[in-house]
Write a structure and sequence with these properties.
This protein is an alpha+beta fold. It has one domain. Helix content is 33%, strand content 23%. It contains 2 helices and 4 strands. A 4-stranded antiparallel beta sheet has the order 1-2-3-4. Strand 1 and strand 2 form a beta hairpin. It starts with 5 loop residues before the first helix and ends with a helix. It binds zinc ion. The site of zinc ion (ZN) has 8 residues, from loops.
Length: 101
């Protein structure tokens, strides 16, 4: 995951291509699986890609995958966009909590 294209990923998020993030926690693991649909950049007519990532409770990415060509190598901008969005949600959530105190 070190070589994902950070700037491209951020652009995907900024442009609103990253759709709703869903998460699930499988029964037999402490990992959280995060998924989102990502519309291919500049190709609105194409079907969205489906990146997912399994993260630990500390937020470390254990494995990530995407159904686009680059995602087979576990590094594409869709996975990056998903992770950026998760990071943003966590940050916003924290801000909201801190406002209560
Ligand atoms: Zn991808």
């Amino acid at each position: 995951m070190k070589n994902y294209k950070a700037l491209d990923s951020y652009k995907l998020l900024e442009s609103g291509w990253v759709q709703t993030v869903r998460h699930m926690i499988p029964d037999d693991t402490t990992l959280t699986v995060l998924r989102a649909d990502v519309t291919p950049s500049f190709r609105v007519n194409e079907l969205p890609h489906h990146p997912w990532a399994a993260v630990t409770q500390r937020g470390d990415v254990v494995v990530a995958h995407c159904d686009c060509k680059a995602g087979l190598g576990e590094s594409c901008s869709h996975i990056g966009g998903l992770l950026y969005k998760v990071e943003m949600i966590v940050r916003v959530g924290r801000d909201k909590r801190s406002c209560l105190h």
